[in-house]
Amino acid sequence: MSKFAERLKELRTEKGLPQIKFAKEIGYAQSIISAWEKGLYEPNANALIACATFFDVSTDYLLGLEREDGTKIRVHI
């Protein structure tokens, strides 16, 4: 499972939001949210920004490139 999938599900469940309600809030179908959380595919840039904005986190945090405190995580490619 991708870091994005893990963090999205964690943020959504911490807020007590069902997938359907979160999907409606950001303008996507529930099936898309489910696919993201299962790690079937990653969101495009606009969807990533919508998720980050909704949860008031950075896109880097959602992608697993940053810790909760804002420090960067070294990624070896």
Mean pLDDT: 93
Specify the CATH architecture.
Orthogonal Bundle
Count of the separate structural domains: 1
CATH class call: Mainly Alpha
CATH topology assignment? 434 Repressor (Amino-terminal Domain)
CATH superfamily caption? lambda repressor-like DNA-binding domains
Number of strands: 0
Return the string of H and E elements.
HHHHH
Low-pLDDT residue spans: none
Q: Could you say which overall geometry the principal axes of the C-alpha atoms support?
A: globular
Task: Tell me about this structure.
With 77 residues, the protein is an all-alpha fold. The protein has a single domain (3-62), classed as Orthogonal Bundle (434 Repressor (Amino-terminal Domain)). It has helices spanning 3-14, 19-26, 30-37, 45-55, 59-62. The radius of gyration is 12 Å and the shape is globular. The model has no long low-confidence stretch (mean pLDDT 93).
List descriptors:
77 residues; mainly alpha; 434 Repressor (Amino-terminal Domain); 5 helices; 56% helix; 0% strand
Short description:
By secondary structure, the chain is mainly alpha-helical. It has helices spanning 3-14, 19-26, 30-37, 45-55, 59-62.
